[in-house]
Amino acid sequence: MELFTLWLWPFLALLLLPGILVYFGLHVVERGIIFVDLALAQVAALGICVAIFLGAHPGHDVLPYALSLVFTLLGAALFALTRFRHSRVPQEAFIGIIYVVAAAAATLVLSHSAEGDEEIKNLLVGNILLVNRAEVLRAFSLFAAVGILHYFLRARFLGITFRDRKVPGLGIPLRLWDFLFYGTFGVVVTSFVQIAGVYLVFSYLIVPAVCGALLCETIRGRLLVGWSVAFVAGLAGLTTSVKAETLDLPTGPTIVCFFGLLLLICGAISAVRGRGRAEA
Amino acid sequence: MTLRRLSWISIAASSLAVSGAHAALRVVATTPEYAAVASAVGGDKVSVTFLAKPTEDPHFVDAKPSHLVALNRADVLVEGGADLEVGWLPPLVQESRNPRIASGGSGRVAASEGIQLLDVPAQLDRSKGDLHAAGNPHFMMDPENAGIVAHHLADVFCRLDPGSCTAYQANRERFEKTLDERMRSWAAKLAPFKGTPIVTYHSTWRYFAARFGLVSDTFLEPKPGIPPSPPHLAEVIAKMNDQKIRVILVEPYQNRKQAEVVAEHTGGTVVNVCQFPGGLPGTDGDYFALMDADVSAVASALAPRSAS
Lengths: 280, 308
Fold this sequence. Notes:
The complex is a heterodimer.
Chain A: H1 8-16, H2 18-31, H3 36-53, H4 63-82, H5 91-109, H6 116-125, H7 133-152, H8 154-161, H9 174-196, H10 198-215, H11 219-243, H12 251-279
Helix pairs in contact in A: 1-11, 2-10, 2-11, 3-4, 3-5, 3-6, 3-9, 4-9, 6-9, 7-9, 9-10, 10-11, 10-12, 11-12
Chain B: H1 2-18, E1 25-29, H2 32-42, E2 46-50, H3 65-73, E3 76-79, H4 89-96, E4 108-110, H5 143-160, H6 165-190, E5 197-200, H7 206-212, E6 215-219, H8 230-243, E7 247-250, H9 256-266, E8 269-272, H10 287-302
Parallel strand pairs in B: 1-2, 1-3, 3-4, 5-6, 5-7, 7-8
Helix pairs in contact in B: 2-5, 2-6, 3-4, 5-6, 6-10, 8-9
């Protein structure tokens, strides 16, 4: 019964929101830009820190949200620009540099504020247990909008990521498509980070996509495996954290550990299958 | 560390398990010192749990599932007030869906009500970084204020559970009597050091110092909640050498390393103290034991060293 009173919105958040992250995860894993979500989240956090520095209060004023969006889009532009820029420097290096510089800048901006450290921590760790109705509904409508956009433009987005030669719509430069990809991705990551924190976002992006890639070849199959893994990990993590009262485990890290467990299982299945195929 | 944490968890778990068995009132306190006073006043008529661990920064507490469960079932929520828990309690209370402890609810108690707060700023300016915008919330370190809170709680318990009122008032009287006795011995222990300045990490010990005649106006934090900066620490070191201040008080969740660096440059001593029962060994759930430990730690650090 408590599931439907105390834990209703965390449960719905874990049910409704990760779907689009699993989809973006396929792109991120395939493109080999695993840490781009951390970097974008950190750039968004820098925007919020600047807003706090200017005297705004996160959660009450519009400025933090607006600035985090502006910074996210600037970050997206940077990522789109750094693609194919230099043959000897991998894009992952730029991602790492953007991450540390944004993190350091955020610390500098808030070094004279009492809530500074806490705001940064809240943004990175989040708290899925305390998510409320308004946050879930707002994030869900945003994710639905991004999802619809990507569904209609799927041929181009998937084509670019999976390096399909027959990408349609090349009248528009590749960089602009990349900017659109990173921009929508950044908006999704930023708003989920504020609800669930970086650990969870990272897990929801990467683990289901890796499980899908281990078990399936088609994009449809990977998505289905990924969505199942995401659903099971979320439900198992929330239930364990809430039911194991004597342990009193924080919810986010519990879910992350279930992701680790599920990846092990998928890896085992894939290994057994591989041996079966080799013997056949 | 792991052992202590585990034992705390089992204490919290066992007290949760007890709740609802026979006790009339289920009391949740934000921090352990209010839980200790609530237990003393409520006796076996109430079950008491607390949210922040004694070794956790009370300004910032991470939400756990058990917090929501405890708050959901609570009849009474005791908070320090004066903005101490403003960073983490409101969303917990909101998500606990319990009108009894909502702001303005019958079971919501702000301990700071009726307390004369120190350091109330003349003008509010949180953007410049001051955690104590409503005044200094660490008033429980003055034992007289613990007496006021005991009174306050007895009144609330009587209002919510009139049948056990005589028991609550008797418990409160016993608590105050013990407090008066201990107060004399604490004051005697610290009397030789009247007017001695001390350095503390955070402005936690302002009330303690005011009550026992010490001077607490030097802090490792440049402002409450702002982490120590190198120029500020340099100032503190200069001031300590200048005024021959020898004692730096540090609490479990504060950065002990910075205090040690300052101590190294000043020949000072870093002293472990805590504002919460359970934060020092042997003080679990007992306000008197905690004050005993804090007073003894400060007194022995201030005492002239036999070697010199």
